[in-house]
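Minutes, structural biology subgroup

Action item carried over from last meeting: produce the structure token record for DDE Tnp4 domain-containing protein (Parnassius mnemosyne). EB confirmed the sequence was re-checked against the source entry. Recorded below for completeness.
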Amino acid sequence: MLGDSAYPNRPYLLTPLINPVTEAEQRYNEAHIKTRNIIERTFGVWKRRFPVVALTLRLSLPKVQAIIIATAVLHNICRNHNLEEVPSEVELPIVEINEDMYFSEVQDVSERAALVNNFFR
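Output recorded by EB:
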């Protein structure tokens, strides 16, 4: 999974390097940013098409999972059939993201370092 710098790096969650030094680290950050941007745009389209995904769901975990899966399947069907986005009937709240806040916890960076060294040199 990819996360922004607000999250700690974990073996299962890759975050960008805060101060990339080497060319390999810079290439890793560029690839990370490009990939995350695609994912963020896709989530934006999905949330506009199905506002329930953007709102806080106060349901049981199995029901939330079913809603996520159902809306993802419906979203992919719409994309496969080139269906236009319809205007949202619900005004979604604007969420401000402060990219300057970095996670300060000691992080496990060994997985990320191996990835950078093996694939971005």
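Discussion: Helices lie at 23-49, 61-80, 110-119.
Next step: EB to file the record with the rest of the batch.
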